[in-house]
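Table 4 source record.
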Amino acid sequence: MSCNNSINIFLLGLVSGMTSDIRGSSIDQQQLMTFAYAFSVTIMVAFGIISNIFSIDTLKQREVRSSTVGLYLIVYSCCSIFGLIMVECRLIRMLNSFSYTASFIICNVVSGLASIITRICLWMNGFIAIQRSLQSFEANRLINKIRSRSFAITHIFIVIISIFSMHIHELIYRVSVSDPLLKGNYICQIKYPSSLLIMNTIFSFVHLFVPLSLNIFANCLVLTLISRRRATLHQTSHWNQWMRHFHRHRHLFLAPTLAMVSHSIRITLYKLILFLRFAFYLN
C-alpha cells in the first residue's frame, strides 16, 4: 500500500489513496483507472483555476481592490490557484516509476507547499468573514483601523510568514523512501520525533478550528447587529429576533460546523487506527 505515513501519525493523501486503489485492481484495469483518476482530477483542477482567474479579474478592479475585503479575496484566489497547481503536480506520484529527485521535489517541496497554501486559504477565508461583518458596524477609531488598507496588507504578510514558520518542521522531516511494494518507486513519509508530534497536532488544530471559528463568530456578529436593529424598530425582544434570523440564515453555520466535526472524527479515526495497528504488532 502506498501512503503518506509516519512512525508517529498516519496520513493518507488523495493521490496516495488513488494509487493504492489502482494497484489493488487487476493489471488489465490499472491503465484505465489511472486515466480515469488523472482525467477527473485534472478537470476539477482546471475548473477551479479558471474560476479563480475570473475572480481575480473581477477583484482587480480599483473599487474592489481598494477595500480590505477585496485584498483578502485576491490573496485567497491567488493561493487557491497555486494550491490547485500543487494538486495537479502530485499526480506524478501515480506513475509506476520515477526518479528520487522527482520524488524529493513532490514530497518535500510540492506537498509541503500544498499544505502551507491550503492553510493560508483557510485563514484568509476566516478573515474575509470578519472583514465583511465589520462593514456592518458603525465606524469608530478601532473599526476604521482594522478596516484600513495598510492594516490589511500588514496583517496578510504577518499571517503568511507565521504559517510558513509553523510548517518549517514539516518541510524538514519529510523524507522519500523506497516503496517496498514497487521497485524503482518512492513513497513520502513524515517522520516526526515524539517532541514535535504534540506541537504538530496543536498547529493542525489551530490552523483549522480557529479560521472556522472566525467564520462562525463573524456570522454571529452580523446576526447580532441585524437583530438589534430589528428589535429596536419593531419593539420586540432581541433574542427572538436573533433566533428568527438564525433559522433563516442557518446555512451560513453549516459549512464551518461540518468541517470541524469531520476533522474531529478524522483525528479520532487516526488515533484508533494507530492504537489498533500497534496493538496488532505487540500481539
